[in-house]
Every structure is written in C-alpha cells, then in structure tokens.
Amino acid sequence: MKVSAGKSILSANDQQAARNLDRLTRDRLLAINILASPGAGKTSVIKRLLAALSPAHAVGVIEGDVASSIDTDAIVALGYPATQINTDGGCHLDAAMIDRALEALRLRGPGFLFIENIGNLICPTGFRLGESLRLLIASVPEGDDKPLKYPGAFATADAIVLNKMDLMPLVDFKMDSFLAAVRTVNRSVPVCNISCRNGMGFDALVGWLLEQGSRRPWMRR
Amino acid sequence: MKVSAGKSILSANDQQAARNLDRLTRDRLLAINILASPGAGKTSVIKRLLAALSPAHAVGVIEGDVASSIDTDAIVALGYPATQINTDGGCHLDAAMIDRALEALRLRGPGFLFIENIGNLICPTGFRLGESLRLLIASVPEGDDKPLKYPGAFATADAIVLNKMDLMPLVDFKMDSFLAAVRTVNRSVPVCNISCRNGMGFDALVGWLLEQGSRRPWMRR
Lengths: 221, 221
Prior knowledge:
2 copies of one chain form a homodimer.
Chain A: H1 2-26, E1 29-36, H2 42-53, E2 58-65, H3 70-77, E3 82-86, H4 95-105, E4 111-116, E5 133-139, H5 146-149, H6 151-155, E6 159-163, H7 175-185, E7 191-193, H8 202-214
C-alpha cells in the first residue's frame, strides 16, 4: 500500500513536471534546477550567472527555502525578476510549486530560469520540476568525499560545480579524491571549478550554459 | 488519510525512541544526536570529543550515512567502537535504526554515545532517536543566515556549535547576524564557537557535555 501510494505521488509529480517543461519550452526558457547543501553558494552562483547572461538573455529566479525570503529580496534588489517558494518545513521543491511560481513570475524568453532548490543533497533528487538541466553545487569546505556519501544528487546532475576554490589552500581537500568520487557515481558529468569570491571558472560555466541553450532550437530568437 | 498515516508513523517512532532512551539510561549512556549540513564537520567534531572524553568515560559512535562507511572506518581505525547505518537514499535516521545499531554496538557506560545523523538540516529534525541531547553543528563557510532558512533544526537544538572558526577571516560571515538569527528561533540555546582544525572551543564544549552528564544521576559510577 505504501509503495503504490508513493508511486502515484511521484507519477503525479512527473506529470506536472512534464507540463512545466512544455510551458517553459513554449516560453523559450531553459530551466536549471540547482541542488546543493545549505551554504554551498547557490544564491551567489545564481547572482553571477544573472549578471553574465543578462541583458542579452531574459533571466529570472525561483527561490526555494524552508523559510525566509532573504535570497529573493537580494535578487530583486539587484533588479532581476524573482519569486519565492517557502515550503514551511518541506525538504524539497515539487513540480506543483513550480507551476504556481511560473504563474507568479510570468517570465518570457529566450533565456534562462534558475530554480534554487532547498539546501538538501537528498530529497530534491527524486522530484523533477520541469527543468532542462540539473546543476549540482558542491563546495570545497564540505570535503572531497561528498559524492560517495550523497550519490543520488551527484549521479543525476547534468553538471557539477565545485565552488569556494579560493578556500582550497586552507582546507584538507584532495581534488584527485573528489574527481575519483564523482566518477564513481557519474561517469560523464562535466565538473567546473569556480569561486564566487573571485570569479574564477565563470567563463567556462557561462559557456556551458550558452552551449546547452544553443542545442535547443526553441531558444533561438 | 495522509495526515493520520503520518501521525501514526511519527507516533511509532516516538514510542521506539522512548524505548531507546530507556535502554540507553539502563546502560548509563548519554546519547547525543548530531545534526548538520553535509560537510559541516560532524565526524571531525566527534573525533575530537572521543579523544577528550575517553578513556575516563566509555564512548562510542553510531554513524548515519545515505551510503558509504567512510566515517565508521575512520573512527574504528582510531580504536573507538562505532557502527554504521546506511539509509540507502533515506534522508534521516529513525528510532528503529538506532535500536538495531545499539544491538550491534553493545556499548556500556557510564559514558557518551554520539549519533551522527544524515547530513541534512530539515528531515532529521522531526525524528527523535532516544537521544538525551541534540547538538547542531553549523559552520562558518555556510553563512550567517542559516538559522532563518532552516529554523526547525536550530529551534530544537540543545546546543549549537559553530565550526570552522579558523576560516572566519576569509569569508563574509557576520557573527552578530548569526547570533541574532539564532535568537530569533531559539531564545536560550548555548552557542559554542569551535575549530576542529586548531582545537579552539573544545574545552568549553567538553565542559558542557560533562555538565550535562553530571545532571543525570544514572551517569555516576
């Protein structure tokens, strides 16, 4: 009984996610679902990507948080469209929440929509939102063994970003171990080393996003 | 239907947690449920506490991870008793898992049992394990706004440890903002600033644990 109930809930989410993807495609928006631990730098990465991609492209943000609107307030203050989802204790975003947020945001492309998921490397993994891409942000202070401890998030990522590279000299993080751990769970995912503090790696990350956009014919003007 | 099913599951967990607490008390063990984000330093904190508390006290560890036995292997290699729980995708420990782990560990006090929960600031909050104390480990690189974003974990903590203080000069972390955020969700919780890298703050943290132990008459020899 429990299993079948779980399946029907997941399937309802998948159905809504497919409808979200249809809508996003119609609106010529490439949606990026961003997964990370609390404090890995999701909002900081998004802020730099917004600055790099606009005004050449439409950009917008859906912010997911258990509570507070700190991140949305910061992004709106910078002049970008953003809308907040508060899950009130919920541990992941789901496709129905994104449906409502899209209705509130009313963004039109061609461009990029960033969806900042709840800071959690486990639960968001199982819930498609209608995204075209999943970006996983790891960060150097978290340590090099996280892909082995949270394999689901690393296995389902379309790209992995390793943030806070500026802290590398100060912490015990072995890049070889991290990359080997990533390869254990995801053979082909690109890994991009960045620092939101000094901007390192963002040219490559923006280039990857633009290339992903160029692969979708509906993203062309 | 969903709500009542949820309630009965929680209640079953609470019942098992109460049985775990009975058993731990009988075995004269003070159990500390450790909550944190991935990579905040749970295992590093535990290692330093094990060294400080033993051999004067019995010590042991239950390690919770989605996957891998990296942390248990490291603790056993140091000569301390430890047992691993793998949740295989599950986002929190529950009291039934702890029941089985206690059976495997067979630790006898008087002393301290550390339970390292899954790295997740949301889901573990709702599941009592039979612990006497909840310790929340935050870390400086995660940022000063986390109590506002993950209020449940901070609200239910008996003590908050702020780790990686050695990185403070290198990141944008305002201590005043962090403490104000903590007080917004938890008026009276003690906050202890530490660094696993240089040992800062561990005298105070160990002192707090020993004081907590001394308040339980069954912890006396």
